[in-house]
Structure formats: structure tokens, C-alpha cells
Design goal:
The chain is an alpha+beta fold and 196 residues long. Helix content is 12%, strand content 30%. It is globular.
Length: 196
């Protein structure tokens, strides 16, 4: 998945967005149409290649992950950090409830926001997917007038619909971090540590 250009909307702004699937190329493109353009001009925001995944990885021990991550924070800590970096999220994109962390790992208990009434309408709700990226913001120092934006996902694997799941947990593992780049893995699990 590559995030080509951010889809930023100002309050009250409306934009038509389309997802284009190509069976021959096994790809998806997310585009939006330029407001007022008569020639059908559009902006490409994201592209992705699709492939089948057969086997789900082995379950993890959430208890062991919590033990390895001794520092605890409320989920609101992520949203305060994001606001300092110019990100303002609506309530349907605020799923992080509680955080456990160490130097290289961030474990988040996810909670469906009260404002999300259609979560079962999606394989994975867009707010949930976004919330799996949000812990990255705890690893980046806030700088005035600088906004951290994820621009590429190396691989996105989906194993099961979380419809029957009581709790969701997101684990972020920092692989590489410096002033220019952050490389991390993000995993989503059910309450038994089984990958979603």
C-alpha cells in the first residue's frame, strides 16, 4: 500500500471519492475528484496490490506483552500527541483505549467508540485501521509546523472478521527509527491473542 497524497478536508468540505479495483492487475486505487474541474480531473491518494494469504500466524500471549511493556498511558495520550503534530481526528477514529509500552513495543487495547454504529458493515472499520497506525505518533518527537505522515504500508494481512470479538488489541513493534524514517510493524489481535 502506498499513500500517494493525503486526502485533507477542511471543515464542511465535501469531495467525491472512489475506490477503483482492477481484477487484471489485482490492485486498488483510491482517488478523489477535483472540485469544479470539468474534465474529470482527479487526485490519486492511495494504491495497493492484492494477494491471497492462506495461513494465520500463531497466537501471542497478551499477558506476556503487557508484562514486557511496563509503562502505561491512557489512550488519550495518543490523541494529545497527534494534535500537537497537526492531526485532529473525529470520534469515529479514536479507538485506542489504553496503552502499554516499552522502548520498542506499544500495545494498545482498542475500544469501539460510542459514535461508531456501523462497525459490522466493514471487514475492518476505517477508524480501526487508522487507529492501528496511531501508536507510531508516540515514537516521533513533535516539532512546530512539522507533521508526521505515514506514506507506505509494506504488507497488510487480513485473517478474519472481528465481528464476534469482545476485545481488540494492537501491537506496534518498532523495527527502525531515525530522524528521517520510522519502520514498524502493526498487528491486530482478538482477546485470545489470535491475529485478526
Amino acid at each position: 500500500v502506498a499513500f500517494v497524497q493525503a486526502l485533507a478536508l477542511y471543515e464542511g468540505q465535501v469531495r467525491t471519492v472512489q475506490a477503483l479495483y482492477s481484477a487484471t492487475e489485482q490492485s486498488v486505487r483510491l482517488i478523489s475528484f477535483v472540485e469544479g474541474a470539468e474534465d474529470g480531473a482527479f487526485i490519486e491518494h492511495a494504491t495497493a496490490r492484492l494477494r491471497s494469504t492462506v495461513d494465520s500466524p500463531a497466537p501471542v500471549s497478551l499477558e506476556e506483552l503487557r508484562r514486557r511493556c511496563p509503562q502505561t498511558l491512557p489512550g488519550a495520550a495518543i490523541y494529545e500527541t497527534m494534535e500537537a503534530q497537526q492531526f485532529r481526528l473525529g470520534p469515529t477514529f479514536r479507538w485506542v483505549d489504553k496503552i502499554w509500552r516499552n522502548e520498542r513495543e506499544i500495545l494498545c487495547r482498542m475500544k469501539v467508540p460510542d459514535e461508531v454504529v456501523d462497525a459490522d458493515s466493514y471487514q475492518l472499520h476505517p477508524g480501526l485501521i487508522d487507529s492501528c497506525f496511531q501508536p507510531f505518533f508516540l515514537t516521533v518527537a513533535a516539532e512546530e509546523d512539522v507533521t508526521f505522515v505515514p506514506f507506505r504500508v509494506g504488507q497488510f494481512s487480513f485473517y478474519k472478521h472481528p465481528r464476534e470479538v469482545r476485545e481488540l488489541w494492537c501491537l506496534v513493534v518498532i523495527k527502525e527509527s531515525d530522524d528521517e524514517r520510522l519502520l514498524a510493524d502493526s498487528h491486530l489481535f482478538d482477546e485470545n491473542g489470535i491475529p485478526v
